[in-house]
Design goal:
The complex is a heterodimer. Chain A is mainly α. Chain A has one domain. Helices cover about 70% and strands about 0% of the residues of chain A. In chain A, helix 1 runs antiparallel to helix 2, helix 1 runs antiparallel to helix 10 and helix 2 runs antiparallel to helix 3. Chain A is globular. Chain B is mainly α. Chain B contains 14 helices and no strands. The chains are: A mainly alpha, B mainly alpha. The interface between A and B is large, with 55 and 56 residues.
């Protein structure tokens, strides 16, 4: 019989809730300061964090599966549309939105395919369809997510995981960037509040992306 | 074709228009050695997460320690005893041993990312790889006479150590290939010849050329694999049963050709590297079954992807340049555009 390291799942779940809370703060500050970039990534990380916390610890799960599927389908479509838009605007390249579309797609797969068996604190039995996610697809997705985590950390363009490299002032900034990003876009801004100056740093935004990638990759590995 | 100013993911200024490109920040291109280091870090991160699977924390014959006991059997007693000693500790303290194992691999993976911790992380990876090779892989089956490269011999984890040495950071220029930057051209070529000669030798010694043994190698991987991979396995196992000896000899010949390839003119070197990459890609899928990862319970992806990465570090560079900012081959993640 397999021993479940439930403490590990609680740990991942708490971290996921932390990412969700962090993303919510960024989202609120985005609205408050009319920041034009990255809010869609904040929205996706918020939902992914909440959803994955419920996957790692079953009793923390909430919401109907259909609703979650709808949310992540919407996010896949949104990020794919943003990718196409980016290609139309900047020419042929790999838009950073693609990795967020892929992450949303991975979330969708987690709801579409149940895990073979529930294990302790964790349960992936969120669907009654009975089918199993192809391990090959899960492995490829997990590897891409791990690669995204590693290359994001190594990237000199801090904050690019949230804003892409076409937000040069923001992405290249080593400090809190919302003020600069907004001014770069030429939009009217409200003053940057203290909490945002503290939290909306490119490094923290990258860190939240890295943590999300690792947790999601772990979940996909567990589905093998 | 040589790798030179190959940039992936950068929107061409001409097509995007001058006004558009004026907004794009000047981003430094990633050094090819750095890119390979990050790919290696990604594999270490994968290994760390694989170490967190529930199977690894399970004591007894159905868990990680049981798997290690299985590896010990058949080895000479002086090897088997050390593996069993390790397995016994893991069996009694699965969490206290396995959690640090995973943590070490996380440290290596993320350590390679930071330039400040790159050297300690690569150094740790060498020590860790050698330890895992002995205690976790039973020395890759070398002492059993069953370390065929088809199965990952002489031990997939050894390639992590070789790559750590060849990707050791060093400011170098005018080197003909990335691996030469760390240790020099002659030493890098010596490593290359040693690795591929060993692979050739292991292909044909012991049970490596036995059709039955090669058949059983694939058949043993079959359990728990997805249907499409099981079908490939059935074909592979059948092929080995009928042509196992010929396949082993052919692999040995290929390995020797690849070993010699690095001394030949660049186009021929490239052809031999493509051959090596193609052969080990096929072996990784059709024989190694992605290291058994898809069946669950694997600790690493086996030797296939690491041999491919090793081959890429010997790819001839145009104008003998492997310097920073000259070369930029980066996966999608490296050049995230908005």
């Amino acid at each position: 019989m397999t021993t479940t390291p439930s403490w590990l799942y609680y740990l991942f779940s708490v971290v996921m809730l932390g990412v969700a809370a962090y993303s919510l703060v960024l989202l609120v500050s985005s609205v408050a300061t009319r920041r034009p970039l990255g809010w869609d990534v904040d929205v996706s990380h918020f939902f992914m964090g909440l959803s994955m916390a419920g996957m790692f610890v079953t009793k923390w799960a909430f919401g109907a599966n259909n609703v979650w599927e709808l949310i992540f389908t919407g996010l896949v479509i949104w990020f794919l549309a943003r990718s196409i838009q980016s290609i139309q605007r900047w020419g042929l390249h790999l838009p950073h939105f693609l990795i967020h579309a892929l992450m949303s797609f991975a979330m969708l797969l987690m709801y579409w395919f149940p895990m073979a068996a529930s294990t302790g604190a964790m349960s992936m039995s969120m669907s009654s369809r009975g089918a199993k996610l192809d391990p090959g697809l899960a492995f490829v997705l997990a590897f891409v997510l791990f690669a995204s985590a590693i290359f994001t950390l190594a990237s000199p363009n801090k904050g690019a995981s949230h804003h892409g490299t076409h937000a040069p002032v923001y992405a290249m900034s080593a400090s809190a960037g919302s003020e600069m990003a907004a001014s770069h876009s030429g939009e009217e801004t409200t003053p940057v509040v203290g909490v945002e100056r503290l939290l909306a740093t490119p490094r923290l935004e990258d860190a939240s992306h890295v943590v999300m990638c690792v947790a999601m990759g772990f979940m996909l590995i567990l589905m093998l | 074709m040589s790798i030179t100013e190959t940039r992936v993911g950068r929107p061409p200024a001409a097509s995007a228009g001058a006004a558009r490109s004026s907004n794009a920040p000047a981003r430094p291109a990633r050094d090819l050695q750095r890119t390979f280091q990050l790919v290696l870090a990604t594999v270490w991160l994968l290994d760390a997460v694989l170490q967190l699977q529930p199977f690894m924390f399970t004591p007894g014959s159905n868990g990680f320690s049981g798997m290690l006991h299985g590896i010990a059997s058949g080895n000479p007693s002086w090897v088997a005893d050390t593996i069993r000693w390790n397995a016994s500790i893991i069996d009694h303290h699965p969490v206290l041993t396995n959690a640090p194992f995973a943590l070490i691999q996380f440290l290596i993976g993320f350590g390679i990312v930071s330039k400040r911790t790159l050297k300690p992380a690569l150094g740790l990876s060498i020590v860790w790889a050698l330890g895992v090779w002995w205690f976790g892989e039973g020395s890759g089956g070398v002492f059993l006479g069953g370390a065929t490269p088809f199965g990952g011999g002489p031990g997939g984890v050894l390639f992590y150590a070789v790559l750590a040495v060849l990707l050791w950071p060093r400011q170098g220029s005018d080197q003909p290939f990335v691996a030469a930057r760390a240790v020099g051209v002659r030493a890098a070529k010596a490593v290359w010849v040693a690795v591929w000669t060993l692979l050739a030798l292991l292909s044909v010694v012991g049970s490596g050329r036995s059709p039955e043994a090669l058949h059983d190698l694939v058949a043993g991987m079959n359990s728990g694999q997805p249907g499409w991979l099981t079908r490939i396995d059935v074909s592979s196992a059948s092929f080995f049963l009928h042509h196992g000896t010929a396949a082993a000899i052919l692999l040995a010949v290929v390995c020797l050709i690849v070993a010699a390839g690095t001394f030949l003119p660049a186009p021929i070197t490239q052809a031999t590297l493509v051959l090596a990459i193609a052969v080990f890609a096929v072996i990784w899928v059709a024989v190694q079954n992605f290291g058994g990862i898809l069946a669950g319970g694997a600790t690493d992806p086996n030797s296939g992807p690491l041999v491919i990465l090793l081959a890429l570090t010997y790819w001839p560079l145009a104008n003998n340049r492997a310097t920073a900012s000259d070369v930029a081959v980066a996966p999608a993640f490296a050049e995230q555009e908005g």
